[in-house]
Amino acid sequence: MRLLERLDSTLPLAARPYGLLSDRARRLDRDVYDTRLLLQKTTCMTGADAARVFYDPGLFVRADAAPRRLILTLFGEGGVQSLDGERHRARKEMFMSLMTPDARDRLGDIASRIWRERIRDWEGRRQVVLYDEVSELLCQAVCAWTGVPVSDRRLPAITGLLTALIEAPAAVGARYLRGRAARRIADRWAAALIRRARENPHTRLTEEPGTRTVVDVVASCRDADGRLLPPDVAGVELLNVLRPTVAVARFVVFAALALHGNPQWRHRLATEDDPEPLEAFVQEVRRFYPFFPMVAARAARDFEWRGHHFPKGRRVLLDLHGTDHDPRLWERPEQFRPERFLGREPDAYSMIPQGGGDHYHGHRCAGEWITKDLMKVSVTALTRWMSYSVPAQDLRVHPWRAPALPESHFIVTQVAATRVEAATAR
Q: Which of 2, 98, 126, 273 lies 20 to 30 Å (CA to CA) from residue 189?
């Protein structure tokens, strides 16, 4: 395998997307090295210092950086992930306008209400597959929050579309083809929502009179030249709100897995009202468990870093998972230890499960705060609003599957609502 890796890393990386880049960096004793992917020279980087360089807009750009299969499934054509300069600034400003404390609180309140409703629905069921249920729960919540009309009958289908987009980028065969088909259907659906919003500007109000919905905001977004985004591009950006929110279900399942394996933390979160342990637990779930393994950019110009030459246009991969497990940054990184975050706020380049750098001006995920909010609501639900049993099942997380999940999708039984309410869910 190491000989194949030296010749071309495509197959080794597909077989082990989490850990391969950082392991080779450690063998070479350097944070940057060249390899080949699909026979094209590619530079790989890992560590906090590498992340700081990678998120310098004067050194790296995102245009034409993501592999085409990501555009055709996960990202969509013309989305914010592939923009630079003023076009990226204008688009990112729109996304960050959605992340106000009041807006995040509204989403958290919606998610809390739906969690309680779902828990009551789960009572009496023989078993509940947590990943499937939480994906649908979060889809329902984000559609309500954004103003996207989805009936109970259509909710499973919309959830299925969004999860297919998430599953597809690193997949082969049927899973990838499902993602391609889902992208075409989702793009048409989202573009139709944008057109409808533009045609009926006075009929789309949230439950709070006079408040614009997220669909309104996206539909009225203008590019750097002052023109409204084409409906298909605005639809892609609407999906860039919906899809990542549904993807939080993976973190929720990993949180359930962590609670199962760390009963002392389950007890602590169920009995303490101090918000700091909940914050620490959520952060450690995000750091420890595999999410998306890496991100791509291209060198904006010729430059050197640590004696390594970056020619203009070279594709570069930043190792997200490896940086989150870097022993230079994290003591005993392969152990799940939420206490590492008690009294510690990680910097923007050491803790990068959803990218690094600045939220407002860089390419760090705009929805990172929403991710943490929804995880806190979900962990509160799992520890305070319900009781359940975890039967014997296959909880292995395979290193070759990206994005990762426990094999069983985490099954629970004997679900019952409890009367213990959290003092706060965020």
A: 98
